[in-house]
Amino acid sequence: MTAVLPLKGACLCGASTFTATPTSSDAGVCHCGQCNKWSGGMFVNVYCGNSVVFDAGAPLGSYKGSAWGERIFCKACGSSLVWQMQDGTHQSVAVHAFEDPSQFTLATQIFTDRKPGCYALANQTEDMTEAEVFAKYAPDGGAT
After folding, report:
1. According to a count of CB atoms within 10 Å of the terminal CB, is the N or C end of the chain lower?
2. For the structural domain made of 7-135, what CATH number should be given?
3. Mean pLDDT across the chain, nearest whole number?
4. Model's pTM, two decimal places?
């Protein structure tokens, strides 16, 4: 299935609601140190281009973890919602913010060399190390 319709999403308390259009049914996992601390573990996400639109009045907070990356969360309940480029050109939404996360299939893992040894995922995925991610995506080779 290719997700082409806008989906509704929300934080834990329901104060921060949004719509977003995933570009496919593929989900990814980020194991970087910032995502691990920000989300309380691996950040399972789906790429939504730049389609995320929060409803008016959503109590959003933003944390700029690098010169180019930004993390959006609900200030009311603390839910981790979106990792995005600061210019808004790349938005990855927490899969569990959508009503039915089972519609997505885990396809990729990044920062695999930073993954803690206390868990392993069974899915066969495309994997990238920290160096590979920065070489491919980082505008200046900087941190997340």
Report:
1. N
2. 2.170.150.70
3. 92
4. 0.87
Long-range contacts of 93-97 (CB under 8 A, 24+ apart): 93/9, 93/20, 93/22, 93/45, 93/46, 93/48, 93/52, 94/9, 94/39, 94/43, 94/44, 94/45, 95/27, 95/44, 95/45, 95/46, 96/44, 97/9, 97/10, 97/11, 97/18
Dihedral sign for Cα 60, 61, 64, 65, please.
Answer: negative
User: What's the pLDDT score for residue 68?
Assistant: 87
Say which amino acid occupies 56. A
Q: How far apart are CA 22 and CA 67, in angstroms?
A: 25
| Both tokens assigned to 56 | 């008016």
pLDDT single digits (tens) 73-127? 999 999 999 999 999 889 999 999 999 999 999 999 999 999 999 998 988 999 9
Q: What is the pLDDT of residues 36-47, one digit of tens each?
A: 999 999 999 999
Lookup result for tokens 């194991």: 31
